[in-house]
Design a protein that fits this description.
The structure holds 2 protein chains of 2 kinds.
Chain A lengths: L3 H20 L4 H14 L5 H7 L2 H17 L4 H12 L4 H18 L2 H18 L5 H15 L7 H10 L3 H27 L7 H8 L10 H24 L3 H16 L3 H6 L3 H19 L2 H13 L3 H18 L2 H18 L5 H14 L8 H12 L6 H26 L2
Helix pairs in contact in A: 1-2, 1-15, 2-15, 3-15, 4-9, 4-13, 5-7, 6-7, 6-8, 6-10, 7-8, 7-20, 8-10, 8-20, 9-18, 10-21, 12-13, 15-18, 16-18, 17-19, 17-21, 18-19, 19-21
Chain B lengths: L1 H17 L9 E10 L2 E10 L4 E7 L3 E6 L2 H20 L3 H24 L4 H24 L13
The chains are: A mainly alpha, B alpha+beta.
Chain lengths: 425, 159
């Protein structure tokens, strides 16, 4: 525990940084780096201590998967799959929405949500254009299911990567514990979406013929690279499934896949590494330093005490507080800084009480990932979809999205509540 | 931002591939270059890629077709000579006529393209247009002979 002045300064830096991040007035990476550096400038922690707070497993996993996806996307596989799926649906708009959403959900479980959306949305827009239909009823289901699908695995959404890395919970732990509830939520959500958008998706036979006339083989840009990329991705997913048995951290698996693909693809590493989302990586590193500083000055320990006092150490109330609190917070705020703060908080609760905190990790993952569906600003994927629609001349307003997204978020959290009660509480 | 740009590019390339195009995407830098010569704007755009190819185009006061170069010295030299020539031309009292003629020639090219792409033009009309172009060509050569040369650093390429 540090002195009182340092405690106040640390809280001030942390709060101001988070307020500015939430306000979205300044680039989130720029302010997070500034906040982290201020912790060093004011001697809240020494540089070598700050570096030790950075979770390099999370960073390595993110970078590794970004490299794999950056190479995979050059093959044209997502365009190929989209055209195949649209033809399989015989150009029927609702069937296309259904198949694309499921494809997005499954892809999102194995790739980051934002990445999946960036790969799937452009091809969906092309298909919607061919059908002469507004792309909004295609894209809203896709982004909702992407956020839901990403909840199922360790690598599907950044909050899960952070939780897995901090707790040692592995790929299979996430699938076994979150997979069943994610499937139930997906089925219910698709049913609701059919009611909402089903009747608006009508097109002519002539337009359907245009879809059937598309040639999926033209989408494949490099067959050799496709084979290499899919082989490495497959090996990497198997590696994730076995990483606990093999005794490797998840980042080692992702980086092994990335390094192998970088080597055998014969692409210029400069081109690939240039496309890594470095602002996101630095954002994560800065948040780890900010939260680490708060831990060092004892604030996290203090908050954990207060939370235990509020819930009286009852696992049911604590889990409900974590689930619903995370969901509501994540619907309006960036869930990454929220989860970065909650992880040490829950760890402290575990150290101070006798309750088993494992269910709390599932509550946090479900709340933080599914909460993002609540509003247009709740998840990065939603913001990207809105931006891409705007570029295409369509406006998805905050309210229009919320009318669909918020009720679906509430339904998914109610299902999660029931699931947690039945399975763990 | 670059992520949205990538997505936008995917939409375009997917449509073009379905039209049968082969597409190669290269990372490059685009430079906009502007000069102000006594209130007269001369502007260029050029693109550099990692293969060492440069694509240069003049965009103001009137466009000059894009050309490919293989080293930066060539690009800088082209701009330098072009700029010197414009500095000379600006001092001429004919500068406005020069620009107007150039603009009209460009408009004529566009009109001809529309004519060619939208109508089935009879051969007799094509022959008449060729005759008129020959007359313009002869007029340009005559004008050259009756005019004083004012720029000597480089030989003219087209006349």
């Amino acid at each position: 525990m540090l002195g009182n002045t340092q405690l106040i300064v640390a809280i001030a830096i942390f709060t101001l940084t988070y307020v500015v991040i939430v306000s979205e007035k300044v680039n989130r990476t720029a302010i997070a780096i500034f906040g982290a550096v201020m912790m060093l400038v004011f001697n809240i922690e020494m540089q070598h201590e700050a570096v030790m707070h950075v979770d390099f497993n999370t960073i390595g996993l993110l970078v590794g998967m970004m490299i794999i996806v950056n190479i995979l996307k050059r093959t044209g596989i997502f365009e190929y799959m989209a055209i195949r799926a649209a033809k399989y649906a015989k150009g029927d708009p609702w069937k296309i929405v259904f198949i694309f959403s499921i494809l997005t959900g499954v892809s999102s479980a194995f790739l980051d949500n934002v990445t999946t959306i960036l790969l799937v949305v452009p091809v969906t827009i092309v298909i919607a254009n061919e059908l002469k239909l507004n792309p909004i009823p295609f894209l809203v289901p896709e982004v909702l299911i992407a956020n839901i699908g990403g909840t199922a695995t360790l690598i599907g959404d950044p909050p899960n990567i952070m939780i897995g890395s901090a707790t040692g919970l592995g790929f299979l732990d996430f699938i076994v514990n979150l997979g069943p509830v994610v499937i139930i939520i997906t089925v219910v959500t698709m049913f609701i979406l059919k009611r909402v958008y089903g009747k608006t998706l009508v097109t002519t036979d002539e337009r359907k013929q245009k879809i059937l006339a598309m040639d999926e083989h033209l989408a494949i840009k490099d067959k050799k690279l496709l084979v290499k990329s899919l082989s490495v991705l497959g090996m990497t997913v198997i590696g994730f499934m076995l990483h606990q048995t093999l005794g490797y951290e998840s980042a080692t698996i992702a980086l092994f896949g990335a390094a192998t693909l970088l080597l055998i693809s014969k692409l210029d590493p400069e081109d690939i590494l240039m496309e890594i989302e470095w602002p996101t990586i630095f954002f994560f590193m800065s948040l780890f330093i900010l939260v680490g500083a708060l831990e060092d000055v004892g604030v996290i320990h203090y908050l954990a005490e207060k939370m235990l006092l509020l819930t009286k150490g009852d696992l049911f109330f604590t889990a409900m507080l974590v689930l619903w609190g995370s969901a509501i917070a994540s619907a309006f705020l960036d869930n990454i800084p929220f989860v970065a703060t909650m992880i040490p908080l829950i760890t402290s609760i575990g150290e101070m009480s006798s309750i088993s905190i494992t269910p709390l990790w599932w509550a946090l993952a479900l709340g933080a990932c599914l909460g993002g569906n609540g509003t247009l600003v709740g998840a990065s994927a939603n913001v990207i979809v809105s931006g891409m629609l705007e570029k295409q001349g369509y406006k998805l307003s905050f309210v229009e999205y919320m009318k669909v997204g918020f009720p679906i978020m509430l339904v998914s959290i109610v299902i999660s509540t029931a699931y947690l009660i039945v399975r763990y509480l | 931002m670059s992520r949205l740009l990538d997505a936008e590019l995917t939409i375009q390339t997917m449509k073009l591939r379905q039209m049968g195009a082969k597409i190669k995407t290269i990372n490059s830098k685009m430079c906009y270059v502007k000069f102000d010569i006594s209130g007269f704007e001369v502007a260029y755009v050029y693109n550099i890629n990692k293969d060492g190819n440069y694509f240069l185009e003049r965009i103001k006061p009137y466009p000059l077709a894009i050309r490919e170069f293989y080293d930066e010295e060539q690009v800088i030299e082209i701009i330098e000579i072009d700029l010197e020539q414009f500095k000379n031309a600006i001092n001429s009292h004919n500068i406005q006529s020069f620009i107007d003629i150039n603009r009209r020639l460009h408009q004529s090219i566009k009109k001809f393209e529309d004519l060619f792409l939208y109508y089935n033009v009879p051969q007799s009309e094509c022959d008449r247009i060729i005759d008129l172009l020959d007359q313009i060509d002869a007029e340009l050569k005559d004008t050259k002979l009756s005019s004083n040369r004012i720029y000597f650093r480089k030989e003219p390429e087209n006349i």
